[in-house]
Amino acid sequence: MNFSKEELINMTYALGEAERNCLLASRIYEQKYPFARHPGSEAFEHLRERFEDTGNVKYKKRDVEQRTVINDKNELTVLLSVEENPHVSVRQIAVQVDLSKTSIQ
């Protein structure tokens, strides 16, 4: 479960107040923010590990390589879609032929 920037900051404060004790930090957070969602001690452990490893509380971005799928069949399908309707958008074609927008461009 991803937490907002504000939640991560408040969780970091609670973790500092608890002297890096994740269970205690969870309880402190629950007391200070009774109307917010309450992260468990495991969420605080992940936060502490991420902060100690990277010096940052931001989530790591996944390395996803976007590959375009260009072959004769896909190229022909896209060209026929445009010929059929010259005003069709790239997004509409992508949905129709189940390809990424970058593959169509």
From TrEMBL:
It comes from the Eukaryota. Residues 6-57 form the DUF4817 domain. InterPro entries: DUF4817 (IPR032135). This is DUF4817 domain-containing protein. The lineage of its organism: Eukaryota, Metazoa, Ecdysozoa, Arthropoda, Hexapoda.
